[in-house]
């Protein structure tokens, strides 16, 4: 039961991922953006249809990459909601992973509770069960 619950959880979670990303994984565009520093902020700027859009980046992580390019994922109708095209932050969001881990723990608790403490009447029925002799095809 626990193996089945684990397989069910992982398959549902992996199907959920590509359909829940914002910007949408299937309808989005990827473009290179230039990492620059403006004041005390580190930003990535990219241009779409002649207009420049800015994405604020974590200073500690990208301060050493100023002047380089990074891939940005955005939707054509909402380029202001762009995100960095990387695993952590686009595919793996900390709050989403924490919620999924909580659901997984609850699912494991239910699976454990249903398989490890059967009803006494059910247990007696299982222990008293005798398999009938039958032919191969009946």
Shape: elongated
Biggest pleated sheet:
5 strands, antiparallel
Overall pLDDT? 88
Cα end-to-end separation: 29 Å
Provide the CATH architecture of the domain at 2-91: Beta Barrel
Query: Which fold does the CATH topology of the domain at 2-91 refer to?
Result: OB fold (Dihydrolipoamide Acetyltransferase, E2P)
The helix content, as a percent range, equals: 40-55%
Give helix and strand order, one letter per element, not per position: HEEEHEEHHH
Counting DSSP H or I runs of 4 or more residues, the number of helices is 5
Describe this structure as you would to a colleague.
The protein is an alpha+beta fold and 138 residues long. It has a domain at 2-91: OB fold (Dihydrolipoamide Acetyltransferase, E2P) (Beta Barrel), CATH 2.40.50. Helices cover 43% and strands 29% of the residues. The chain has five helices and five strands. A five-stranded antiparallel beta sheet has the order 3-2-1-4-5. Strand 1 (28-38) and strand 2 form a beta hairpin. Helix 1 runs antiparallel to helix 4. The radius of gyration is 26 Å and the shape is elongated. The protein starts with a helix and ends in a 10-residue tail after the last helix.
